[in-house]
Design goal:
147 residues, alpha+beta, four-stranded mixed sheet
């Protein structure tokens, strides 16, 4: 089972994990990304390329499922404006063993950070700035690319 969702509403972690856990695997690993109030951030707005974003997320999820033998994978990403404390992303992976579930989860979050067409704008009071790509994110994603 591969489930991809890009939405403007809140992420239901319990429902997503229940769905992923219901696939008979021995291990489920998940990652939840949350809007941080770093450096005075009061809001985070994410924009995306509809249709293409889901295709890219599905391709990364399919790669992870094949590479790590996943029974289930779910990628849920919010778009729109969020405030500190809101969930931005949830990745959940079910596999026979914990090592594969954990590795798949790490791969997915590292790759979606660089490969998926999302654009972030941080709001600090009246000022808003687009977030630029970080070298560390590209290096983290590169370690998962296959030759």
């Amino acid at each position: 089972m591969i489930r991809i969702a890009v939405m403007t509403t809140a992420i239901d972690v319990a429902a997503t994990l229940a769905e992923v856990e219901g696939n008979g695997a021995g291990a489920v690993a998940s990652f939840t990304g949350i809007v941080r109030p770093d450096d005075g951030v009061t809001a985070l707005t994410l924009e995306h390329y509809p249709g293409m974003t889901e295709q890219v997320l599905a391709a990364i999820a399919e790669e992870a499922a094949e590479r790590f033998g996943l029974a289930a994978v779910s990628v849920t990403h919010r778009v729109g404006t969020m405030v500190p404390g809101d969930r931005v992303v949830l990745v959940a992976c079910a596999a026979a063993h914990r090592r594969d579930a954990l590795a798949a989860c790490a791969m997915l979050i590292d790759r979606l950070k660089t490969d998926a067409p999302f654009w972030k704008r941080e709001q600090r009071g009246e000022r808003a700035d687009w977030v630029t790509a970080r070298v560390a994110d590209a290096e983290a994603a590169d370690r998962w690319r296959t030759a």
